[in-house]
Amino acid sequence: MTAPFATLDEFRRTLEDAPGPDMETLAAANDRNGQLTKPPGALGRLEDLAIWYAGWRGQAQPQLTAPQVLIFAGNHGVCAQGVSAFPSEVTVQMVANFKAGGAAINQLSKAFGATMNVYALDLDMPTQDFTAAPAMSEAEVIQALITGWNAVDPASDLVVTGEMGIGNTTSAAAVAAAVLGGAAEDWVGRGTGVDDAGLQRKIDVVARGLALHDVADPLQALRCLGGRELAAMAGAIAAARHHSIPVILDGFICSAAAAVLEKAHAGALDHCVAGHLSAEGAHQRLLDGIEKAPLLSLGLRLGEGSGAALAIGVLKGAVACHSGMATFAEAGVADG
Ligand SMILES: O=C(O)c1ccc[n+]([C@@H]2O[C@H](COP(=O)([O-])O)[C@@H](O)[C@H]2O)c1
Ligand SMILES: Cc1cc2nc[nH]c2cc1C
């Protein structure tokens, strides 16, 4: 499918024109939830999740059988500033590992019955160092948004957006500060594990990036401070919305990309849930900024869509209970 935008302004209009949930289905799913053989509310957040999922799918008794995990990889010019515990070559090496089936996300995708696609985004052409120039031109950010958009299979019934990119917690922190406000030190964490000096360098780098660029517009923040994998995740999240496919967001970098959409158009993430709370220090602040409560909190800080892939199991459980359970009338159970 051809992406319906060729400029950032057209992408913004795509967000504005996106479909909402089916309100009749939401009401029907809510009604069904009230009749299932359990005390009211006893399945906790699983009940809200199932109703939310039904609404987006337009089916009061939906199935969840075709989840798609998307991994986008990008390289970052800002790595020249010494902001990661690992060298940039690891990005392309991990892409090879994904393709060979050897990464954590390969095992988790398989465990939860998801297809997995990997997109390496111009890894031999890192983004510009955002302390010196905009990370991407408009053409480059649009190209990455389109790659993400086209990666979504309209036949899938759930999308997980993940990433790989040495240096991208620095870009994500800068994007988060630009779109949600606050100072560099509020958003910078240790990523893959930088030491105290590395942490200070990251804070300084993010502060300089914020001072250099005009990032009042969230889509300009994505272009000037982000990376190709962040833009591709944003494009995939927007495409999923266009196709009424729910999304599970992953960790800190994915959430920063998602925050761009929410700030570009309020409600743009209504079809998304937060899969987990990352161990990256500022992830809680970021989730607060997009008003999402994580489904899991397991101390993960891997990326690759790993936390979101684990949450596929939670969502599958919610949908299975909602669609498969008997009602009080069907089971002949006395309804309190
Ligand atoms: O998802 C997260 O919350 C997360 C937190 C810390 C690190 N990562 C991963 O680690 C890489 C970025 O870390 P860094 O230190 O190179 O900025 C990138 O490949 C991410 O997928 C991911
Ligand atoms: C080995 C390694 C694997 C990763 N997966 C996602 N980010 C990563 C960063 C590193 C360093």
UniProtKB/TrEMBL annotation:
Record-linked CDD domains: DMB-PRT_CobT
Family designation: Belongs to the CobT family.
Protein known as: Nicotinate-nucleotide--dimethylbenzimidazole phosphoribosyltransferase
GO molecular function: nicotinate-nucleotide-dimethylbenzimidazole phosphoribosyltransferase activity
Catalytic reactions of this protein: 5,6-dimethylbenzimidazole + nicotinate beta-D-ribonucleotide = alpha-ribazole 5'-phosphate + nicotinate + H(+)
Described function: Catalyzes the synthesis of alpha-ribazole-5'-phosphate from nicotinate mononucleotide (NAMN) and 5,6-dimethylbenzimidazole (DMB).
Pfam families membership: DBI_PRT
GO BP term, pick one: cobalamin biosynthetic process
Listed transmembrane segments: none
EC number(s) per entry: 2.4.2.21
Keyword vocabulary terms for this entry: Cobalamin biosynthesis, Glycosyltransferase, Transferase
Active site: 304
Enzyme class, broadest EC rank: transferase
Pathway assigned to this chain's UniProt record: Nucleoside biosynthesis; alpha-ribazole biosynthesis; alpha-ribazole from 5,6-dimethylbenzimidazole: step 1/2
